[in-house]
Structures are given as structure tokens and as C-alpha cells.
Amino acid sequence: MIGGGPGGYTAAFRAADLGKKVLIVEQQPVLGGVCLNVGCIPSKALLHAAKVIADAGEVPGVSFGKPRIDIAAVRKAKDAVVERLAKGLASLAKSRTVRVLNGTAEFASANSIRVSSSLGAKLIRFDHAVIAVGSSPIRIKGVPYGADTARFFVLSDSPPDRDVIWSEEGVQGAARFMQRLWRLVNEAADAGKAAPQDRPATFGADALTLRKAAHGALDRVSTGIERLHFNVCLANIREFANELADALARARSNKSAPAPDLSWSLREAAIILVQIFSPMMPHLAEECWQRALGQTGLVSEARWPQIEPDLLVEDSITLPVQVNGKKRGEVTVASGAGNPEIEAAVLALDAVKQALGGKQARKIIIVPQRIVNVVG
Ligand SMILES: Cc1cc2nc3c(=O)[nH]c(=O)nc-3n(C[C@H](O)[C@H](O)[C@H](O)COP(=O)(O)OP(=O)(O)OC[C@H]3O[C@@H](n4cnc5c(N)ncnc54)[C@H](O)[C@@H]3O)c2cc1C
Questions:
Q1: Is the four-CA dihedral 126, 129, 132, 138 of positive or negative sign?
Q2: Can you list the domains of the chain with their CATH numbers?
Q3: Phi/psi zone of residue 20: left (φ > 0), alpha (ψ -120 to 50 degrees), beta?
Q4: C-alpha angle 148/153/157, rounded to 5°?
Q5: Closest CA to 13 of 101, 92, 84, 85
Q6: What is the pLDDT of residue 139?
Q7: CB of residue 134 inside a 6 A radius of ligand 1
Q8: Average per-residue pLDDT in the chain?
Q9: Cα-to-centroid distance, 131 and ligand 1 (Å)
Q10: Checking CA distances to 345, which of 212, 225, 321, 364 falls within 20 to 30 Å?
């Protein structure tokens, strides 16, 4: 048996059960292949932790607080699961007298393979050989999309627990959006080239609007990833990409180069954009990170950006306004506005004046952050 993954070891065990003398040749130190050592088992052991965290946050009325993740301990637990299963496979092989030879096999003739390892090369003769060496990704001729496009499409289509309905238009849309991301990041990186290294002390209106959009998206995507709501993350990334495109268009419409605070904010926005889409489109993100943004190292190893909480505070708040229990309109006030300011803004509304029919309001009840009731 060439290859000791799920394909190889199951066939080897079956052949042994049928009375064959079986040897598994495996180039990795343990049996299990991609599934046990790289893919299914490690990913599910890690996803299990993420699922428990997500479930704990969804029980109505029960709060466990924000989880603290000790990544070294999580990794150790995952390694322990893999090791236990690897030992189980080794003993299953032993109990069937299936021998395991570590090394890389190549055919020497129709009935022999050469197995090379750090200990040297060995020639093995056989009557029957099964090739179970797994697969490696290739790009299919005529299909112009890469792994990131497929991943983006699958993740953006629906929540992870639902089936995906494949659609050619959907995949094409995903491919177009990825090209747009590449263009946006490059343009923002160019506009941010002259930016000062240090964070400016103050920001003008355009820069502040962009920074709020960037940190708002960062906040929502961070939460979405923790909850495995990747489709929501991608919707937020699309929204932020539009906001960055608007900021770039505004900057372009000014004939002069962007002011230092804006160019710093454009570079920050591009960096945040790449980091927040990197878990969903890792290949594109690495290209953007190094080639467009000139960063060193891998984005997958870079520190997750720090959210600035001040930028998440809304400047204004919109409240529904009722007169004698019937909704008459809405009022938008500064988010820190006190009751006198809210009352004045409500009484200045034409709809409220009309509903009161020229009479004085007898009482105004303000439910903070929720609603304003005017009693006529
Ligand atoms: C991240 C991830 C998550 C996954 N999750 C799931 C899941 O949840 N459910 C699921 O069903 N599948 C999952 N898979 C897919 C699953 O891992 C593969 O389908 C499965 O491992 C294929 O088994 P295999 O034996 O054909 O190949 P492999 O597992 O690739 O095993 C082939 C073995 O052959 C060895 N080999 C190759 N060439 C030689 C050589 N010349 N000489 C000696 N040895 C050689 C390799 O070292 C390897 O150990 C996942 C894959 C990944 C990457």
C-alpha cells in the first residue's frame, strides 16, 4: 500500500483481513494522512472549541462573559486528540500484522518500488500495489477561478450550517468582487504612500468618516468570525469596500494629493480591509499584504488590528417620535444630547406641530435611546 491516509490504511486493513500479507509505505512518520494529521481531525478539534464558544453566547438569559483563549492550551488539546487517534491506528495495524515502512515510494519496475528515507533506500517487491497517495490541488483548465473565489462564494452564500446552492452567476460575482478588492487595496495603498509614519494627532471630517467605517467593519467582522457567521462577515466586508471606494472617489475629486491625515487613514483602511478578509480569502490577502501594501511577513501571522472604541461611538442617534401614542416621525439628535435638546428638536418637527394642532404639549416622555412620546 503506497500511502497511509484514510484511503490507504482502510484498504490495507481490509486486505489483511482477507489474508494478504500487507505493507504500508508512508512518507510521514505516522499513519493517518492529511485527514488525521492536517485536515479533518485537527480542524474539527479546533472548530469544536469555536462551536462551544458560539453556543455559549447564544443561550438567552445566560451569560458566560467573554471567553479567554489560551491558544497554546487549545493547540495542545488538538495535538493530544491527533496523537491518541494516531496511536489507535498504529495498534489497529499491529493487531492485523500490517507492517508500516516510513519513506517515500517510487516505482522501480512493474513489481517493485524503491522506498527512500533518511536511513537510505530499500527495494520492495510486491504482487499487487495500491496507490493511495492522496491528491494535490490543480487549476482546472477553462475554469478561471481559484480556491479563494470558491471559498468566498461558499462562505458568503449562507450560514455554515446550511447547504450551499452552487450558481455560476454567484461564483462570477465572487470573482468580480475579489478583483475589485485587489484594485481598491492597490489604489488605497498608492494614496497612502505619502502618509506620515506616525498616527496624526487630529483627523479631518473625511479621514474620520473613513476611520469610523474601518473600525466599525473591524469590530463587526471580529465578532462575526468568533461566532462563525462568515456570511455576515463578508456582507460587512462588502459594505466597507463600498465605503473605502467612496473615500477614494472623494479624494480623487480633489485635484491635490490627499492631506496627511487622510492618506494615513487610507493606508490604515487598506491594511484593515486586507486583515479582515484574510481569513476568508487567504491567497488574495497575502498578495495584497506584500505586493500592494509592502508589508513584511505573512498577513496570517500579523497581529489582528486593534479596535479603537472611540471610533465605534455613533455621532448621532435617530429616535421614533409618537404624539398621543401614534408614530408621527423621527428625530435625529447628537448622541450625547440631553433631554432639553431632544424636546426642542421634537417640538420643531412639522409633523409634531401638525399633530398637536397648535396646542402646547402637556408632557414629553423620553425613553433614552428608544423613543420619544409627546402627550398633547
Ligand atoms: C483542512 C481540511 C479539512 C478536511 N476536513 C474533512 C472532513 O471534515 N471530512 C472529510 O471527509 N474530509 C475532510 N478533508 C479531506 C480529507 O482529509 C481527505 O479526503 C483524505 O485525507 C483523503 O485521504 P487519502 O488517503 O486519499 O489521502 P491523504 O490523506 O492525502 O493520504 C495520502 C498519504 O500518502 C502519503 N504519500 C503520498 N505520496 C507518497 C509516496 N510517494 N510515498 C509514500 N507515501 C506517500 C502522504 O504522506 C499521505 O499520508 C479535509 C481536508 C483538509 C485539508
A1: positive
A2: 6-125 (3.50.50.60), 147-311 (1.10.730.10), 314-375 (3.10.20.590)
A3: beta
A4: 150
A5: 92
A6: 66
A7: yes
A8: 92
A9: 13
A10: 212
